[in-house]
Structure formats: structure tokens, C-alpha cells
Amino acid sequence: MFGASSAQPEKVLQTIGELIGVSKFDTLYRDLYLQRARELMSTTLSEAAYTNIKEGTAVLGLLEHQLRAAIGEGNWKRACEFTDRVSQIRNTAAAKSASIGLAEVVYDRSANVPVDPFSPGFHVFLNASTETLREWREHALEILSRLARMDSLCRISTHVGSQIFKPSRSHRRPSKRTRRQPQVPQPFGRRP
């Protein structure tokens, strides 16, 4: 029950994790779950900040190599500069370590569309049995119910998602009251 700006960072990260989790099962509304995850992620780690951290950690090895070379040459001024840059990159990455893994999924891997495991026959591609599909469906429903309690903006999509994951009527035996009685053909021109 929180807006994007008023939440505690731990709860925001937990909600983002749940949104990512349910997006693997509910591929129909995956884009909406990831859009909400992106909105929440921007409150803790913006895409620009994530890109800076990612680029900084990518050049960390090169900076450390340059630092060793500067020390070997006795260039202490450059060695201090490299030491400061390496420390700054490591500290920034450590401070945002809880967010970085989720940000990678939200910002970098959101274009990867998973196979819908609940489409008829597709569970074979995922090496999943029908029992596994039932477990996944139950897990998805649990995530959706937690999301409905955690984030008021997810209520509409989680309601729709929970409707999708409910067993269809074809899996339930109809009661005597709802069974259709055979219809007797009416003579032409007469309607009941």
C-alpha cells in the first residue's frame, strides 16, 4: 500500500522481486508487472545510476592494472587518483548491492520474453510435468496475493492475474443445478 516515493527501500525491493517473479508465470501481463517494477526501481536506483555502476565495475580491472603500474613507476599522485576511483566504484557498488541484481532484470533483461508455461503443450519445452504446472500456478497465486497486499497500484493487474490462474470451469465438475438439460427441438416458427 505504498506509492513510488513513500516506501521503505526493503519493501520496495521485495515488491520488485515479487513483480519479477510473477512476470515469469503471467506472461500475458508481463509488461505491466515489469513496468511497475521499473517505476519502483527508479525510486531506489535509477537506470542512469545503474548504468554508471555497471560501467564502473566493468573498468575496475583496468583501473587496478593502471594503479599497479603507477605504483611500479613510483608515480604516487596517479596512484592516489586511481586508488580513489577504485574505492569510489567499490563503495557505490557495495551500497547498492541489494538493488543491482533486481535492476539488471528490470533494466537489462526485460526484453527477454519467457515461454508461457501454461499454454497447452509448452510445458514440454520447460521439462515440466502437469504436477509442476499446478505447483507453479499455486506459487503464482501466492505471489499475486502478496502483491495485492504490498502494492495498491498492483491491485488491478493482480486481480486480473489471479483470474487467469484460477482453474477453468472445464476442470471442475458441474453441479446438478448448473448442468445443461438437453434441449428439445421446437417446431419451426414457434419460440418458447
Would you kindly provide a written description of the structure presented here, covering whatever features stand out?
This protein is mainly α. Helix content is 64%, strand content 0%. The chain is built from eight helices and no strands.
Largest sheet: none
Q: Based on DSSP secondary structure assignment, what is the total number of beta strands? A: 0
The overall pLDDT average reads: 77
| Euclidean distance between termini CA atoms | 53 Å
Roughly how many Å is the radius of gyration?
Answer: 26 Å
State the shape.
elongated
Order of helical and strand elements: HHHHHHHH
Query: Structural class per helix/strand content?
Result: mainly alpha
Low-confidence parts = 1-6, 164-174
- Tally of separate helices: 8
Strand content: under 5%
Helix content: 55-70%
Structure described in brief:
The protein has 192 residues and is mainly α.
Provide key terms for this protein.
single chain; 192 residues; disordered N terminus
List the helices and strands and how they pair.
Elements (H helix, E strand, L loop, with lengths): L8 H17 L4 H15 L2 H12 L1 H14 L2 H20 L1 H12 L21 H21 L4 H11 L27
Helix pairs in contact: 1-2, 1-6, 1-7, 2-6, 3-5, 4-5, 7-8
